[in-house]
Write a structure and sequence with these properties.
There is one protein chain. This protein is of the alpha/beta class. Helix content is 39%, strand content 19%. β1, α1 and β2 form a beta-alpha-beta unit. α1 crosses α7 and α6 packs across α8. The two termini are 35 Å apart.
Length: 299
């Protein structure tokens, strides 16, 4: 297939690019820079210049391909709500180009959108439209496209990690540096799911090849790691004390990050593993975190 890949030079997208190319697909990768274009060409892909803000460039990229994989997202979490709305607009534009065909569109969301709201792990079959996470905008857009006949599926992500980045944990580490302590809320029993970036990339490639309209996948290797375990590893890495905060002190300590810090987000991938014959093999989250260079890494 000829596949338009957004986020093709990003943390996850660059690994998805490698998987797609290795599987024999032709990839048109979205990039905003000359350096990004050069990297794509060197990898064996074709470069398409554009940005998430330039919807005409998005529209043009999706115009003459067999499938679209949308991994790009503006990860400035301090402006999270606006960036979720930007993602919604991009998804709508991609869908408008693919409408009337069977060409698949694989979009990206978070595992929290499958939270049933009863304390049990998030599931692929659940879509919690009342979820407070603004990322629900992406899945709302996807659902609307699906109902209009577009072949849309969703890849829901946990904390995707290697020894350099770990999703939300990366800004969490920066906040700990700034505050001089590593904090968690209450007993720190709330959990975050995780998966190694190379395992996630393999799953994206399998999902777009399957091209099943309406499918939701969970790229989850570990169902949930407690906030306290994460804090203890960060504290060891930074050489900082680890403290517990009462919930009411969370906003003052964490600022914009407080909305994430207390969330309990366990997630299952049982159905995904069965459907796509996916078995993650990469290092677990805490292993990668212990192997980090905490001096060199910054947000």
């Amino acid at each position: 297939m000829r596949i338009f890949l957004t986020g093709a030079t990003g943390f996850i997208g660059s690994r998805v690019l490698s998987e797609l190319l290795s599987a024999g697909h032709e990839v048109l990768g979205l990039t905003r820079s000359e350096a990004g274009a050069a990297a794509l060409e060197e990898a064996g892909a074709h470069a398409h210049r554009g940005t998430l803000e330039d919807l005409d460039s998005i529209r043009a990229g999706a115009a003459d391909v067999d499938a679209v994989v949308h991994t790009a997202f503006d990860h400035d979490f301090s402006n999270f709500v606006a960036n979720c709305e930007k993602d919604r607009r991009v998804i709508e534009v991609l869908g408008s180009v693919l409408k009337g065909s069977a060409r698949p569109l694989l979009i990206t969301s978070g595992t929290g959108m499958g939270d049933p709201g009863d304390g049990t792990p998030a599931l692929e079959d659940v879509l919690n439209l009342a979820h407070p996470n603004p990322r629900i905008a992406s899945e709302r857009a996807g659902m609307a496209l699906l109902e209009s006949g577009v072949n849309v599926s969703v890849m829901r992500l946990p904390q995707v990690h290697n020894t350099v980045k770990q999703g939300l944990i990366t800004p969490y580490i920066q906040i700990a540096r700034e505050k001089g302590s590593v904090a968690y809320i209450g007993e720190g029993s709330n959990r975050w799911p995780a998966a190694h970036v190379l395992d996630v990339a393999k799953l994206f490639a399998r999902a777009i090849e399957r091209g099943q309209a309406g499918a939701r996948y969970h790229a989850v290797a570990e169902e949930g790691i407690s906030a306290r375990e994460i804090a203890e590893v960060v504290g060891e890495g930074l050489g900082l004390r680890v403290i517990s905060l009462p919930p009411e002190d969370g906003p003052d300590h964490f600022g914009w990050f407080a909305m994430f810090m207390a969330l309990d987000m366990p997630a299952s991938s049982k159905k995904t593993r069965e459907l796509l014959d996916w078995q993650p093999v990469g290092p677990d989250l805490l292993t990668d975190m212990r192997a980090m260079d905490y001096v060199a890494i910054s947000v």
